[in-house]
Amino acid sequence: MCGIVGYIGSKQASPFLVGGLRRLEYRGYDSAGIATINSPEGIRITRVAGRVDQLDQAVSRRPQVATTGIGHTRWATHGPATEENAHPHVGGHGVLALTHNGVIENYETLKQGLLALGYTFHSATDSEVIAHLMAECLKNISAAPNATTDSVDRYVEAVQQTLVQLRGTYGLAIVFRDRPDMIIAARLGSPLVIGVGRGEHFLASDTSPLVGFTERIVYLADHQLAVLRADSIQVIHRDEGKVRPNVQQLSSQTQEVDLGGFPHYMLKEIYEQPESIRNALRGRLDKDNGTAKFGGLNLTPQQLRSVRRLLLTGCGTSWHSAMVGEYIIEELARLPVEVEYASELRYRNPPLEHDTLIFGITQSGETADTLAALREMKRKGHHTLAICNVIGSSIAQEADGGIYLHAGPEIGVASTKAFTSQLTVLSLLALHFGRLRGLSFEAGQRIIARLEELPELIERTLECHDKVRTVAARFADATNFLYLGRNTNFPSALEGALKLKEISYIHAEGYPAAEMKHGPIALVDEHTPSVFIIPRGVVYDKVLSNLQEVKARGGPVIAIVDHHDPQVARLADEVISVPATEEFLQPIVTAIPMQLLAYEIATLRGCDVDKPRNLAKSVTVE
């Protein structure tokens, strides 16, 4: 969950390193640092406990003149956010420096062995263990009678000897004091992307720092190691030896990662949802056949018809979208669906028939738990598919097929447009499976018509923003919230509560509205607002009854309704209106006011909306 950058070429490295870390800061922002290297000075490191802006100031005060360097922005796993725990870490007596993303599970055992050899540790991290272990391997190789003094091979061998001793995950960038003309990168379970330039090469945890610097990239695969020099790339696989780098085009556009005049990325991404939903639908609606079509499932219609069960898995917001998907797919396709937390599925052994199809849902495509769950299901012989936003990500590459969201970069840690894009794709999947299994042509045509209306509906929904600001101002000082809904709006309640927790640090819980009386109603008092998601539908009267139960106990009620609803208006303290739509699409529409409510409350409380405490965007550790 950390960000890594690297540069080697003829230009000064520091500007790219600091700028790249700023673009990667959504991956972790409790500390940051860079290491640069040149022949006279050796390795020079600047680290801070804090944000990249503080690192930039520190580098400006003491400029680092070098054309080779690596950098890191951290989300803490081992040890608190201190300068000592910040990366890069030095190995031996300054013979190398490295940055690490991932978790080394056997670091304590390795550390005890290194302590016995006389190594001194200055941090509480598992990453410093890698640095010292690599220095020890390099020392032993260099001391061998047949060692070549300055051969690249001995550095590669030192890295390889280190990697075989590590148990866990890693993305590594390494520089060596005696080789300022080289960076070595290695990957297992933690993404790394190489940017290919002319007389220069770049390294990053994802493509965002590379935009504007290169249009050609190489994704490192697991168990691959890369030797980067200004004019060359050498890729070595653990089992296959030297392999030819697979150079691809970088498709991101510079303007997509800019704030575009908005005060925060989260708000920008909330307002991008009409377009992100339009992109999720583009080219996938088949009016002639009343169905949806996909190019990447890699399964024939006959194979899809033979599927008897779907298993949807994900974490956090993606798990909530999977829960909505369960309702929609079972309703439209009459196909049984199970939803599993990926973090639990990877360690379970559920009895799944061979005709069960697995979907992993993820924004980043790097979520460690989801990746591990898909690998386990694939190992057991199941066909695995991904619903993912990031092209070329680990899950996108390892799944047997899948569907891209095409939502564009999502920088805000709290997911917004990826959630509604996931729901849009799951609705398309429900239509696709429905038409394969008995949904009528006329019903398919009606569903397509409703899906086509979605972007405009979201534009109209965003008009509720002024009302949401008023509601937020009234309840910003509350310390507890309840979110309540039924049917497809129950997972929406979970997602609304998660958004508020993530960015405002207010305790919030989501429940099925009917379950409230089985325990949670004990929490209701005059200081605990309840957000009811209550658009018109088959359970409208039931939810209205639940709302009255809260009011009878003095609890403030915020109601999200479709159009003007005088019945709810007489009961609720605040009413937020959204446009009416089909029930299976209501979670997409009702998500908007809940996202805005979380955003406005968080800003009123002075919270860092895009970088909430303790969280990072891409969860690449278990």
Walk me through what this model shows.
This protein is of the alpha/beta class. The chain has three domains: 3-256, 4-Layer Sandwich (Glutamine Phosphoribosylpyrophosphate, subunit 1, domain 1), CATH 3.60.20; 259-439, Rossmann fold, CATH 3.40.50; 463-609, Rossmann fold (3-Layer(aba) Sandwich), CATH 3.40.50. Helix content is 36%, strand content 23%. An eight-stranded antiparallel beta sheet has the order 3-2-4-1-10-9-11-15, covered by helices on one side. The chain has a seven-stranded antiparallel beta sheet with strand order 5-6-7-8-12-13-14. β26, α18 and β27 (574-578) form a beta-alpha-beta unit. α4 packs across α5 (152-163), α9 (317-333) packs antiparallel against α16 (489-504) and α13 runs antiparallel to α19. It is globular and about 85 Å long. The termini are close together. The mean pLDDT is 92.
Brief characterization of the structure:
By secondary structure, this protein is α/β, with parallel strands linked by helices. It has 3 domains: 3-256, Aminohydrolase, N-terminal nucleophile (Ntn) domain (Glutamine Phosphoribosylpyrophosphate, subunit 1, domain 1); 259-439, Rossmann fold (3-Layer(aba) Sandwich), CATH 3.40.50.10490; 463-609, Glucose-6-phosphate isomerase like protein, domain 1 (Rossmann fold, 3-Layer(aba) Sandwich), CATH 3.40.50. Strand 16 (285-286) and strand 17 form a beta hairpin.
